[in-house]
Amino acid sequence: MPEFILGAKARAAGYRLVGYDSIGSTNNEALAAAAAGDPGGLWFAALQQTSGRGRRGRPWASPYGNLAATLLIVPDADAAATATLGFVAGVALNRALGAVLPGAAVRIGIDGADGVSGGRAARIALKWPNDVLADGSKLAGILLEAQKLADGRHAIAVGFGVNAVASPKDVPYPATSLAELGVERSAADVFEALSDAWVDVFGLWRDGRGIADVLAHWRAAAAGIGAPVAVSHQGEVLRGIFETIDDDGRLVVRAADDRRIAITAGDVHFGATASARS
């Protein structure tokens, strides 16, 4: 059995943990627990997923030794507020990865890894809507799934996938892992840091009332603000300048004709891909 442990803050806050060596999907386990009546505050963590998935049902490759973790929560918030939990997850994961990566050797990545940490360019940056970059390559991803309960509330599975020992091959984007970055930290190390970071950021969120504060932290760690961006959605590509994330969590693009367009969903590209016109 892997030696996953909760951080001290997570233990003090009453979170619980189930650890696995290998599992089909930690999100599936969380949603099954919700259906069985679990009140939430329960983490599922594994060293491997055999049926992991990302956004829009895409497969999530999970080589053995990487981190797959899902937190089941049942917040006292409406559906609009719970939709912003992805930003809570992003800020928490950004903090956790920043804690396990060395502070030195800061580099700016080709895909816009130019967030700010401690007043300087950060090696780790958040990519809208749900990725974490390291030196411009994808290091981690987040997936939220909701399930309506009999009492009208929504159980939320907040899923995290972190490339600790290896990155997936044959994917259409740059990817990396902690090991490839020269960082020898295990999935259990990342999980312990994540469980504590979640407590801090979720407390800031306050059932949606504190989303403005969470978004401020997210923007400060964001990749690509002020740079060219291309957003692919439903077969169309919008190009322009990534201006900000608005108060509803939408990506705001300033188009060539100076229109400001708010995007609710899509695949984001920076760098040469964003500037290309073909």
Automatic annotation (TrEMBL):
GO molecular function: ATP binding; biotin--[biotin carboxyl-carrier protein] ligase activity
Domain of life: Bacteria
Assigned EC number: 6.3.4.15
Reaction equation(s) it catalyzes: biotin + L-lysyl-[protein] + ATP = N(6)-biotinyl-L-lysyl-[protein] + AMP + diphosphate + H(+)
Record keywords: ATP-binding, Biotin, Ligase, Nucleotide-binding
InterPro entries: aa-tRNA-synth_II/BPL/LPL, Biotin_CoA_COase_ligase, BPL_C, BPL_LPL_catalytic, Transcriptional_repressor_C
Transmembrane segments: none
PANTHER family noted in UniProt: BIOTIN PROTEIN LIGASE, BIOTIN--PROTEIN LIGASE
Protein name: biotin--[biotin carboxyl-carrier protein] ligase
Organism per entry: Devosia geojensis
